[in-house]
């Protein structure tokens, strides 16, 4: 497993070592010891999975403390453009985003610690997206940032995504009183 540090502190791209032959493939999707070596010392308590067709955009979501979630995300089938925005007050990269293409073929994983708004747009039909979470879902703690906030300058590669009402009604980053602090 190869861990790649991104330009935004705390975000990690994980490249698994895939063993393949004429039967198929095998890879280790999570190894606690390896992750702990890179400072990911969280216990995962909930696994989530979604299926979306091409053009669906989900995000930019987060949960506020004390129910903040870290997420280890990957795509089982299909492809997404995965995007996170740093919402940690005091962070030198506050308001900046990082994008990564996750596919069933590249098997790339992405570690998103608490303090980031997260979203993705599906690039293929029947895309299966999965994520391990460090905290249980808590409706009262959920928040979101407007996916197309001009201040974020995110190129999603799509003009008219399929959105939920919640994502359509999210507010821009300038209206967020973030409860996250950079440490």
Account of the protein in words:
With 183 residues, the protein is mainly beta. It contains 2 helices and 13 strands. The protein has helices spanning 32-37, 165-168, and strands at residues 2-5, 12-15, 18-21, 24-27, 46-52, 57-63, 71-77, 79-86, 97-103, 109-112, 116-122, 127-133, 142-144. The strands form 3 sheets. It has a 6-stranded antiparallel sheet with strand order 1-2-10-7-12-5, with no helix packed on it. It has a 5-stranded antiparallel sheet with strand order 9-8-11-6-13, with no helix packed on it. β3 and β4 form a beta hairpin. The longest helix has 6 residues, at 32-37. The protein is globular, with a radius of gyration of 16 Å. The mean pLDDT is 95.
């Amino acid at each position: 497993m190869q861990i790649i540090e991104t330009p935004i502190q705390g975000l990690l791209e994980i490249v698994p070592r895939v063993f393949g032959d004429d039967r198929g493939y095998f890879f280790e999707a999570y190894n606690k010891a390896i992750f702990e070596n890179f400072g990911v010392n969280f216990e995962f308590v909930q696994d989530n999975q979604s299926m979306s067709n091409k053009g669906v955009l989900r995000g930019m979501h987060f949960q506020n403390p004390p129910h903040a979630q870290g997420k280890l995300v990957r795509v089982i089938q299909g492809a997404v453009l995965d995007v996170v925005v740093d919402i940690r007050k005091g962070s030198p990269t506050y308001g900046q985003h990082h994008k990564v293409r996750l596919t069933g073929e590249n098997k790339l994983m992405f570690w998103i610690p608490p303090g980031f708004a997260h979203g993705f747009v599906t690039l293929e039909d029947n895309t299966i997206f999965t994520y391990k979470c460090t905290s249980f879902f808590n409706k009262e703690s959920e928040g979101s940032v407007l996916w197309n906030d001009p201040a974020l300058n995110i190129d999603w590669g799509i003009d008219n995504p399929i959105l939920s009402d919640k994502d359509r009604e999210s507010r821009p980053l300038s209206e967020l009183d973030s409860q996250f602090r950079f440490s």
